[in-house]
Amino acid sequence: MAKLPYLNIGCGYTYHSDWENVDFASTGEGVKAHNLLKGIPFENNTFEVVYHSHVLEHFLKQDAEKLISECYRVLKPGGTIRIAIPDLEPIARNYIRYLEEALNNVPGAAEKYNWTLLEMYDQVVRTKGGGEMVDYIKDTAKNNDDFLLERNGNEVKLLMENLRNPKPQTTSGSKNSFMYKVKGKLKDWLLKEDIKALSIGQFRLGGEIHQWMYDRYSLSELLKRHGFKSPKVRKFNESAIIDWNSFGLDAVDGKVRKPDSLFMEAVK
After folding, report:
1. Helix (H) or strand (E) segment spanning residue 112
2. Is 19 within 8 Å of 53 (Cβ atoms)?
3. Dist. CA 222–CA 225, nearest whole Å
4. Cα–Cα distance between 126 and 147 in angstroms, integer?
5. Which one, of 128, 132, 87, lies nearest residue 114 by Cα?
6. Strand 255-256 to strand 251-252: parallel, antiparallel, or no bridges (unpaired)?
7. What confidence tier does 179 reach under pLDDT thresholds 50, 70, 90?
8. Element (H or E) spanning 42, and its range?
9. Per-residue pLDDT tens for 52-97?
10. Which among 37, 215, 260, 268 could disulfide-bond with 89, CB atoms 3.0 to 4.6 Å apart, if both were Cys?
11. Are β-strands 6-9 and 20-23 bridged in parallel, bridged antiparallel, or unpaired?
């Protein structure tokens, strides 16, 4: 069966087999591995739909401009771009709300404030996988699970299950393996401070951190700068894309997959 003229870039493990799917590394059968910093590997005017979810924020501002320009290039005239990103606006509004409530000793406000700060900064400044969010989610004494689930949905639910009931870890790699020996040599050659700097640098270049954040105004302006028309905020289950809800990309069992998202569509 021929693919639909629909493209999902930076798809991770959330994709539909009827679409063209691209990510930095292949995450499953039919997912094309490609470095998206080098553009989108298709000809001009190829697709009727281009979609990406929680991808744009991982690009530096100037690289995000290039990515949106590439999305425009590969779309057919009249085609639709759909973007899902973490929405800065409710994080900023929650920050002010829970700051004021915490100062006034409103029960539960302090933990909502603490989590909101992590949403705002942790994935920007972290130097290890999961950052401080992992430590927060592990700690059941925070008594803030309902707010975490409201803000981050199934994603944080899975983290709660995995972090609070960890499975036994198997060791990766023998002490006789090539990479183990290489790491051992590096430790011999480098100072402790050098090793730490190298480790942090490798992590921060690995794609996990957020390089920028957007709201409905800045995302709309970004799209318009690159020729898109009529940017419109959408709900997770609302779209100009035909049969959108049948693809299960922004929903799990009829519920929003990433509740902290801003969904926006525009037309070429």
Report:
1. helix 109-125
2. no
3. 5
4. 22
5. 132
6. antiparallel
7. very low
8. none
9. 999 999 999 999 999 999 999 999 999 999 999 999 999 999 999 9
10. 215
11. parallel
Q: What angle do CA 8, 10, 12 make, to 5 degrees?
A: 100
Taking phi first (over 0 means left), then psi (-120 to 50 degrees means alpha), and beta for anything else, what does residue 240 get?
Answer: alpha
Give the predicted TM-score (pTM) of the model.
Answer: 0.89
Q: How is residue 241 annotated by DSSP?
A: S
Topology of the domain covering 6-87+214-267: Rossmann fold (3.40.50)
pLDDT at 193: 81
| Sign of the dihedral through C-alpha 128, 51, 237, 216 | positive
Mean pLDDT over residues 124-139, rounded?
Answer: 94
Reading the block at residue 35, the tokens are 């470095």
What does the domain layout of the chain look like in residue ranges?
A: 6-87+214-267, 89-204
Length reported for the chain = 268
One-letter identity of residue 128: K
**CA–CA separation, 1 vs 42, rounded Å?**
20
